[in-house]
Write a structure and sequence with these properties.
The complex is a heterodimer of chains A (about 350) and B (about 350). Chain A is α+β, with helices and mostly antiparallel strands and about 350 residues long. Chain A has nine helices and 17 strands. In chain A, a hairpin with a 5-residue loop joins strand 1 and strand 2. The chains are: A alpha+beta (about 350), B alpha+beta (about 350).
Chain lengths: ~350, ~350
């Protein structure tokens, strides 16, 4: 599964430009289920189980990542841009980016040496930033990059510390890796796998996927912020690495089904899978679009704790990803079988 | 290796506080052309003998900005202090290497948005930040101790039009320029006077390597090579040199007008692109200390224009490195000021 994750994290595919990662995933799963692609670009897979499902279940993992889109090319050949998805200015300044075309660029930073007093202690706003690709002027730049072209952080996958991974796009290629792995195994009950698009720009793919599939239940496999870092008080950490997947009871878009939430903890306990609550009402994920779809969908969110989310260096734990996979597999059986009415 | 390959190897390597990655590469490369010795706390000397022992010193600092570990906590998070001018604004989620008993990869922590006050755009102090080693406290403390060095991790890359980006182009670009000069002088054969290349340590901490090395060498004259501010939309153009505009020739009260003038005339004669960099006093380079060695050393300064100084995304134009090396080669082959000196005596 980590070989899958390494490759997935290195495919540049921001929201609205998921083709490359969808094609890669399609190749991996095509022989394991009936596949179709909807109008927005979601990859929907029906996995046949040994038994027919009593509850129509959809598993969701979004394929898109956060990135950058060029808004204008200046006379001098620099690129103005805006973010695609939410990226904090503090992780934008002075970073390497890579365009989908393969061209390299850097988000520039005015040297502190040339700043006066107050300016030194402030972060520039995103609108003040620009990307430098080494162009000699506008005409030259436009040979390589045009307004509307997209880029992502240029960052490669690596493992470090004790069982940790560092990569771009752990949110949500980790979810995709888990879902691909699940599809490649034998399933006890049928389920649908939805590799969705445009989550980072408003949970959009999940909306059309849920409409098209019309599930009764859903499990969203995501990544969520872990703030178990130096200087953050325990009660503000949300969740921690190494403690298993984080289960959401509520976030900015969803008040989650309590029975499913409790059942997930019970299943984790029974199967000795580490598990923790997401201890904050913060953020949101595709459950926001899915749970309120049609006449309503009972939804569970299983999230991989991830430090430095939406940066070039997301950090997660291998063991949490494995535990999340195990819990999702278990809950798929319990939900699809109808034992959790 | 061609210029870009050498520059990339130097850029990616670590070199500060005794870490010798960059020095090892430089030693291997300079050895092809000159007799090499390491001195002091991490400086390199390479000498090309000439017809007499009038000595021209060419200096480029080889150290990069970095950090030092001040403490390791029980959760494996490491606190650091700056060794050189660290741009704290650029540290969040930045990958680094902590040089403990073995190299330990790490990432600077980044405060998640939900924990930031909405209008917060102020930059924290370095002492408030920490490096995430991903290790449990016990193991981290075995591998890392206060005093361990910390360097940035960033591989270099090519941009368009001969521009390149990477960490530590300040001053590996200068080192590459000197290496190119050494090669050109070696291939040209005889030299009228001795040329000593100094890749000095600890410039970022106050030009310490150059100060002591120059004292030991007591050269007759010197030219320092460093980087300076390159053109960028957010900086007034009169404060920068243009990337691709050639070597920035330092003009300042503290630099020798004879060396400066000589460099200027040679550039004109040999059609080597140069652009002026005028300063009112100290240059903030090794030229400031080399010129005060013993009873004084006439010193000039050439700089390579560079964008985003002291970040991991520094950008330079390869052709500007070549302009610097061509000018230094011409300068050395002409004997620097040695003809003038002989006339004076």
């Amino acid at each position: 599964m980590f070989d899958l994750l390494k490759e997935l994290c290195e495919i540049p595919a921001p929201s609205g430009r998921e083709d490359a990662v969808r094609e890669w995933i399609f190749e991996k799963v095509a022989s394991y289920g009936a596949c179709r692609v909807d109008a927005l670009g979601n990859l929907l897979v029906l996995k046949q189980g040994r038994k027919r499902a009593s509850v129509k279940l959809m598993l969701d993992a979004h394929m898109d990542e956060v990135g950058f889109i060029v808004t204008a090319v200046t006379e001098e050949g620099f690129l103005k841009f805006t973010t695609v998805g939410g990226i904090d200015p503090s992780v934008l300044l002075a970073r390497r980016v890579i365009f989908l075309s393969g061209a390299a660029g850097v988000i520039s930073a005015k040297p502190v040496h040339l700043m006066e007093g107050e300016e030194r202690k402030k972060l520039p706003k995103t609108e003040a930033l620009f990307i430098d690709i080494g162009a000699s002027g506008r005409q030259d730049a436009e040979q390589y990059v045009l307004p509307g072209d997209m880029a992502v952080f240029d960052s490669s996958y690596s493992e470090f510390g004790e069982g940790l991974i560092k990569a771009r796009a752990v949110d949500d290629r980790a979810g995709c890796a888990i879902l691909i792995d699940l599809l490649r195994q034998e399933a006890e009950y049928d389920f649908y796998a939805a590799f969705t698009v445009q989550e980072e720009v408003g949970l959009r793919g999940a909306r059309t996927a849920a409409f098209g599939l019309a599930p009764e239940a859903a499990i969203v496999i995501e990544a969520t912020t872990a703030a178990d870092i130096a200087g953050v008080a325990v009660e503000k950490q949300v969740c921690g690495l190494g403690k298993g997947p984080a289960l959401s009871f509520m976030d900015g878009s969803t008040l989650y089904d309590k029975a499913y939430y409790d059942a997930a903890f019970a299943a984790a306990e029974e199967k000795s899978i580490p598990c923790q609550p997401k201890a904050a009402v913060a953020g949101g994920n595709n459950a926001g679009a899915i749970h309120a779809s049609g006449e309503g969908v009972r939804t569970l969110a299983v999230s991989i704790p991830c430090r430095y989310l939406h940066s070039a260096s997301c950090v997660s734990s291998r063991s949490d990803i494995e535990a999340a996979a195990a819990l999702v597999r278990e809950m798929t059986v319990r939900i699809a079988s109808g034992t959790l009415r | 290796m061609n210029l870009q390959e050498i520059l990339f190897a130097l850029s990616e390597a670590s070199g500060m506080g005794g870490l010798s990655g960059a020095l090892d590469i430089a030693e291997r490369e300079f050895s092809r052309y000159a007799r090499v010795t390491t001195i002091g706390s991490g400086s390199l000397l390479a000498e090309l003998p000439g017809e007499n022992d009038y000595r021209i010193l060419l200096d480029a600092h080889i150290d990069e900005i970095g950090m030092m570990v001040t403490s390791v906590d029980d959760d494996g998070f490491v606190r650091v202090a700056a060794a050189g001018g660290i741009d704290v604004r650029t540290l969040a989620a930045q990958p680094v290497t902590v040089w403990g008993t073995e190299p330990v990869p790490g990432v600077f922590c980044s405060t998640p948005p939900h924990l930031k006050k909405s209008s917060e755009d102020t930059v924290p102090e370095l002492s408030e930040l920490a490096v995430d080693t991903g290790l449990p406290g016990g193991r981290a403390k075995k591998l890392v101790a206060p005093g361990s060095r910390v360097t940035f991790s960033q591989n270099p890359a090519a941009l368009q039009n001969g521009l390149v980006t990477g960490k530590s182009l300040d001053n590996r670009a200068g080192v590459a320029a000197l290496l190119q000069t050494a090669r050109d002088l070696y291939e040209a054969g005889s030299l009228p006077c001795t040329v000593t290349f100094l890749l000095s340590d600890q410039e970022e901490l106050g030009c310490r390597g150059a100060k002591t090395a120059a004292f030991g060498l007591n050269p007759d004259e010197a030219v320092a090579v460093d980087v300076s501010f390159g053109n960028s939309p957010d900086v007034p153009s009169h404060k920068t040199g243009k990337l691709g505009g050639g070597a920035m020739l330092g003009i300042s009260p503290v630099l020798s007008p004879f060396v400066t003038d000589r460099l200027q005339r040679l550039a004109h004669e040999e059609e080597i692109p140069v652009q002026p960099e005028v300063m009112g006093g100290a240059t903030s380079t090794n030229a400031d200390v080399i010129s005060l060695t013993k009873s004084g050393v006439p010193c000039g300064l050439l700089s390579i224009p560079l964008r985003n100084m002291h970040t991991t995304v520094e950008v330079i134009q390869l052709e500007d490195i070549r302009s610097v090396s061509r000018l230094l080669t011409a300068y050395a082959r002409s004997g620097g000021l040695s003809n003038n000196r002989r006339n004076e005596r």
